[in-house]
Amino acid sequence: MSGSRxxxxxxxxxxxxxxxxxxxxxxxxxxxxxxxxxxxxxxVFLHYDTYGEPDAxxxxxxxxxxxxxxxxxxxxxCGFNDASGGRxxxxxxxxxxxxLVRLGVDPGEVTTVVLTHGxxxxxxxxxxxxxxRLVMSRREYDxxxxxxxxxxxxxxxxxxxxxxxxxxxxxxxxxxLVxxxxxxAGGIxxxxxxxHTPGQLIVLVGDVVIASDALHYYEELDRDRPFAHVADxxxxxxxxxxxxxxxxxxxxxxxxxxxxxxxxxxxxxxxxATIALGGR
Length: 280
Ligand SMILES: [Zn+2]
Description:
about 280 residues, alpha/beta, Metallo-beta-lactamase, Chain A, about 25% helix
């Protein structure tokens, strides 16, 4: 990419010095760790007993993501809220709205919120962004607004209020429903992979993949271990394979793994990890 900048006379290498936070701030993904809990390995890996390993505690962190690119701020998911997290005994480390402010992001400047899937911990703060465009896969929207979503094993992962907010946004023409692969302004690419939920999306930006819940823990890829909550198991394995292929050229950001905060530099007093976008 630096070659193309030279060719067009737009060589900004001087701005890419590590000391220049301003440059990084304009081209980065922030993984915002807004919540956490401790659970068991047998609760996070599907049919854990088949692996013949002792059970053990494991931390599950909760993230949403901020993409800062070319002066635009795009959100990927928006976290659970106090009520929906509290009902499930999750620990709110910092309410997402306040987390944005702490990271220097004015919620009002968020023009687009990508919703990777409909679970309560990903779409629980839509009220903070009343004017933003929302983007979600059509399959995901149809599923959560359809009859199968009432089955207890699905219904436990969503909030009626959140789904109602999606319906309202859709009726107002504020929800863009996408199929397959879609490219948003700025070259942010959405890829529908399914598996965890019927229309789970992953997000590609620069050389970064925001895997969201197509990959809760890196161990899922490393040891080919599906996550406990799955709508379509072959699709989940297929998403793992796609992510492995993408890992040759991209850095993967897992959806719930505490290791995200160790793999990437931490900013905002431990509130977020920053992943500078290469190739920009
Ligand atoms: Zn989920």
